[in-house]
Structure formats: structure tokens, C-alpha cells
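> example.struct
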């Protein structure tokens, strides 16, 4: 049995390959060049060591060839990659760095040093060595360690119902399974070309787009953010064959297309139509959106379901019916079942239950949190907390078992985490945060606040206050100041009552 990983490097990077792997601004990187970059970075990180031995190395960089070299370089040298959210506020970064017990942090060369000052002082306080990417690159290429595929490879932070995000640890085996199932299911081709504009601290951007493309040998065009103008211009020029985005992005593109003059709109729509695949995921794709996209572009969106802990689990088929409002069927190698409240597997259709997942794709553990890990598995099944129903074999997501999880623009947010921060505001006595249905964001973060006596709080002031304390996408979109919060006999806030308001 092969117990060493072939993650280092990916098959397409494994041999002399002059195909373009990455486009970054005007620059192009072939697979051979990328491989050299990865090896140089891995060697620099290793220094005199033979193996990073699961050292947690964080990196703070926008999408770039340096980001890719750091991620794959850490894997190659035997470390655990901890990609940080570059939009995060300092308290959030501090949580990630200290929770993961990060020892070194790699920063990108293009970042203006001034904006990194708070990060540098944070690292000093945490005793973390900060390395500039270009200083790590070594000219002497070291022998890379042979890694067992069960070794830990990556830690991503995800919000749960608890206050602070947890570190989700995946092994090389998990990552390989997460990639290879998608290569098969979505018929990835070496000729594929895909834009990558999603944040690179989540599975959607890292695995579904970047790693799948690099594994097969396709071309990725990197964007530091969702740059609507440039991306649509490239679509118009037929630069891409595959497009992956969250529903909010499709909503925003439709809004933009509606503003464009007819001939240009038509050319862009044809650009989408001529692609072989448009995928939506990370949050529910409303049937209205699925229909609008089809009408505009002629493309039938392929919706799929995933989670940080499992990669992708369920997907509409590449060949076959892509059903509106449904997420499809379990992916190859992934076992999915619905369970009732008594813990029994639900056979057949039309009875809702919790989705539970098994397979090599499922993560190893929550970092340093055996209790949370244990609580999230039952008899080897990972309990997603998502409720679904099967209809003629296709899964349809009905919601989540917790009202404390909000999905906004594809990001999973913990209401409790946002409440915890709002409660530190000097004017706030009590608060409750919920997600309110929203056409653009899916759910919009909404805060209900009871103020301390004689205090006033305007939305604009609260937003400003939040800016240094939480990622921009967590900041409430709406504020409602109320006299009191509806509570049950146990004193717990009744969030469904707030939703009605
Ligand atoms: C930006 N804003 C948001 C969000 N994004 N507000 C709520 N929710 C959001 N998601 C706010 C900004 O703070 C700003 O507020 C205003 O919207 C415009 O910001 P801007 O950055 O210009 O917006 P954008 O570039 O259009 O960003 C929207 C986006 C982005 C492209 C949809 O949110 C995004 O990339 N989302 C994808 C997240 C993702 O990849 N999730 C996957 C995780 P103001 O104007 O007030 O300052 S889930 C996952 O990985 C699992 C495994 C899965 O299934 O895929
Ligand atoms: P995250 O932990 O950020 O990876 O988010 C995972 C969560 O996103 C899942 O548990 C679901 O609640 C949600 N999700 C992902 N894809 C879909 C989808 N296609 N439809 C509905 N919810 C989804």
C-alpha cells in the first residue's frame, strides 16, 4: 500500500511541463517554473532541518504565485499550512495564530510594510518569527522528506456555534481525496482555464479552484479580489472554460450585466455560455438565480454542497440532470446519509434529516480541541448540522440545525462570535445577532441591541467601531435598538421571534 503522499508535488508539477500554470497580472508561470519556486521556498523553510514535522506555518498574502508556492512549499517540506484571512481584523488573526500555535509567519513581498505594522507587533508579542517571502527562497534545493499521507497538512478556521472559530485540520490524504473526487465528478481537463477570485483561506478557493486545477495541469488566473470589470472583460475574451463562484457573485454579475449596453452584455453572456462549466456553491443558490442565469447565459449552473470539514460532499452531476434548488448526489468516494433525531439512517425519499458524511475527504480533527472533535462525530460519521431531504435521490438542503450560524456571501459566520464582540461595546447591555434573508448576501447579519441606560447608538458609529474588531463581512448590515430581547423561561433569546421582526 502506498502510504507516502504524492502531494509533493502535485502530478502536473511533477515533471517538466511548460504549460502555463498561473497567470498573475501580466506574468505567466509555467508548471516547471512553479515547481522551482515551490522547491526554493520549501528548501528555505527547511534550512538545516530534514522535515518541518508538522510545524504550523502561517502565511498572510493575497492570491499570487507566492501564495501558491508557500502553500505547496509547506506541504512539500512537511509542515502544516495555516493560510490567514487577509481581510481579518487583528483580534481574529491573533486568535488564529495563538490557537494554531504558529511559530513562523510568511508575508508577501508586495504588501506595503506600513499596513503590516500591527501584524508584526502582534507576532512579536506571540514570539512568532516573521519571514518575508523573498528572503525565504533558497538557491540550494534540499532533499524533501517522504511524508506519510496520514500526516497533517492544513489548518483552516471555521466558525461553529461556539464563540471563536476552530482550526479544522486536514491530512494529505484528506486533501488528496477532496481534490480527486472533484477531478472525476466535474470532468476536469488539462485544457481548462479558470479565474480564481475567491478568498484563499477557505476550501472553495483553495481546493475546488486552485488545487484541482494544479493537480490536473490546467491554468489558473489569480485575482487578489473579485474584480468584476477585469473578470467580465476576460470572460468576454473567452479566456476561461470553468467558472466557480458563490451565489452572491452570480447575483452581482447579473446586476452588472443589467447595467451594460446590449451588445457588450451579449458578448459577456456568450462568454459564459461557451464555458464548459459554471458552478455555484458555499451557500444556497435560489431557484430564481438558477433560472435567471440560465435565461441570461444559457448555462445550467451546477450546484454542489460542501463544508470546511469535508471538502465537497454532494454535487449535481456534470453529465445528467442539474436540478434547481438541489445539491445533487454524493460525490465519488464520499458516503452521505440522512439521519433522524433518534440517530437512525433515513431510507428513501422525502423525510428530512441531518446530513452525515464519511470518507477519506473528512477532516482529522479540530486543532487542540478533542472534545469538539469527539462531539462532531457519531459512529464514524461526521455530523454536519445541515438538514436536508432527498427527492428522487437528489439532496435538497433545508437549513441548519442551529440559528447561530449565518451564511453571508458564502462566508459562514457565528452569531455568537459577533455577539461576543458587540457586547464589549460600552453602550451595549444585551444583544442578539441573526441572519435575515437577503437577495444579494443570502443572509444579512442583523444585530438587535438593548442599550445601557441613557446611551444612544447610531448604525454608522457601530460600523466604525466594528471595523477594527471583526472582518468586514461580519459587520452587521442592520442595527435594531430594542427595549428588550424576547427570552424563553430559561432566559435564552428566542431568535425565531427576532426573525419575525
Ligand atoms: C463583502 N462584504 C460583505 C461580504 N463581502 N458583506 C457581507 N457578506 C459578505 N460575504 C461587504 C464589504 O464589507 C463592503 O462593505 C461591501 O460588502 C463591498 O465589499 P467588497 O469587498 O467590494 O465586496 P465584493 O468584492 O463584491 O465581495 C463580495 C464577495 C465576497 C466577492 C461575494 O464576499 C466573497 O469573495 N465571498 C466568497 C466567500 C467564500 O469563498 N466562501 C467560501 C467559504 P462596506 O461597503 O459597508 O464597506 S465556504 C467553503 O469553502 C465551503 C467548503 C464550500 O462549500 O464552499
Ligand atoms: P464552511 O464551514 O464555511 O465551509 O461552510 C459550510 C456550510 O455552507 C455548510 O455546512 C452549509 O451550511 C453551507 N453550504 C455549502 N454549500 C451549500 C449549498 N450549495 N447550499 C446550501 N448550503 C450550503
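> example.seq
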Amino acid at each position: 500500500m502506498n502510504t507516502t503522499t504524492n502531494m509533493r508535488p502535485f502530478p502536473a508539477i511533477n515533471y517538466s511541463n511548460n504549460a502555463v500554470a498561473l497567470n498573475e497580472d501580466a506574468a505567466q508561470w509555467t508548471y516547471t517554473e512553479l515547481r522551482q519556486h515551490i522547491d526554493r521556498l520549501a528548501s528555505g523553510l527547511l534550512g538545516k532541518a530534514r522535515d518541518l514535522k508538522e510545524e504550523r506555518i502561517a502565511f498572510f498574502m493575497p492570491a499570487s504565485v507566492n501564495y501558491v508556492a508557500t502553500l505547496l512549499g509547506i506541504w512539500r517540506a512537511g509542515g502544516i499550512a495555516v493560510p490567514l484571512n487577509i481581510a481579518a481584523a487583528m483580534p481574529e488573526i491573533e486568535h488564529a495564530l495563538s490557537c494554531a500555535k504558529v511559530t513562523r509567519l510568511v508575508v508577501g513581498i508586495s504588501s506595503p510594510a506600513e499596513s503590516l505594522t500591527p501584524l508584526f507587533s502582534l507576532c512579536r508579542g506571540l514570539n512568532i518569527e516573521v519571514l518575508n517571502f523573498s528572503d525565504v527562497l533558497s538557491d540550494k534545493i534540499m532533499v524533501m522528506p517522504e511524508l506519510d499521507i496520514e500526516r497533517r497538512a492544513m489548518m483552516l478556521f471555521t466558525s461553529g456555534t461556539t464563540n471563536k472559530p476552530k482550526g479544522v485540520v486536514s491530512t494529505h490524504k484528506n486533501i488528496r481525496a477532496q481534490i480527486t473526487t472533484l477531478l472525476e465528478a466535474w470532468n476536469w481537463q488539462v485544457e481548462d482555464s479558470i479565474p480564481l477570485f475567491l478568498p484563499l483561506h477557505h476550501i472553495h478557493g483553495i481546493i475546488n479552484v486552485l488545487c484541482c486545477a494544479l493537480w490536473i495541469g490546467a491554468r489558473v488566473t489569480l485575482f487578489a479580489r473579485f474584480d468584476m470589470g477585469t473578470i467580465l472583460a476576460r470572460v468576454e475574451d473567452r479566456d476561461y472554460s470553468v467558472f466557480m463562484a458563490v451565489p452572491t457573485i452570480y447575483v452581482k454579475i447579473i446586476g452588472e450585466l443589467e447595467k451594460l449596453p446590449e451588445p457588450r452584455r451579449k458578448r459577456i453572456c456568450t462568454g459564459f455560455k461557451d464555458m464548459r462549466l459554471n458552478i455555484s456553491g458555499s451557500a444556497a443558490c435560489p431557484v430564481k438565480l438558477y433560472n435567471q442565469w440560465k435565461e441570461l447565459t444559457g448555462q445550467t449552473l451546477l450546484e454542489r454542497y460542501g463544508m470546511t470539514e469535508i471538502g465537497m460532499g454532494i454535487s449535481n452531476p456534470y453529465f445528467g440532470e442539474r436540478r434547481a434548488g438541489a445539491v445533487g448526489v454524493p460525490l465519488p468516494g464520499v458516503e452521505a446519509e440522512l439521519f433522524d433525531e433518534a440517530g437512525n439512517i433515513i431510507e428513501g425519499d422525502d423525510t428530512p434529516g441531518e446530513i452525515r458524511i464519511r470518507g477519506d475527504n473528512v477532516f482529522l480533527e479540530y486543532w487542540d480541541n478533542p472534545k469538539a472533535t469527539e462531539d462532531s462525530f457519531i459512529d464514524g460519521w461526521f455530523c454536519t448540522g445541515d438538514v436536508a431531504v432527498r427527492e428522487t435521490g437528489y439532496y435538497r438542503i433545508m437549513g441548519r440545525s442551529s440559528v447561530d450560524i449565518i451564511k453571508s456571501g458564502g462566508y459562514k459566520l457565528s452569531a455568537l462570535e459577533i455577539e461576543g464582540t458587540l457586547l464589549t461595546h460600552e453602550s451595549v447591555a444585551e444583544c442578539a445577532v441573526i441572519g435575515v434573508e437577503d437577495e444579494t448576501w443570502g443572509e444579512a447579519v442583523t444585530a438587535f441591541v438593548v442599550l445601557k441606560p441613557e446611551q444612544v447608538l447610531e448604525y454608522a458609529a457601530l460600523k466604525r467601531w466594528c471595523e477594527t474588531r471583526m472582518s468586514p463581512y461580519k459587520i452587521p448590515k442592520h442595527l435594531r435598538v430594542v427595549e428588550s430581547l424576547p427570552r424563553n423561561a430559561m432566559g435564552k433569546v428566542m431568535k425565531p421571534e427576532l426573525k419575525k421582526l
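> remarks
The longest strand covers residues 381-391.
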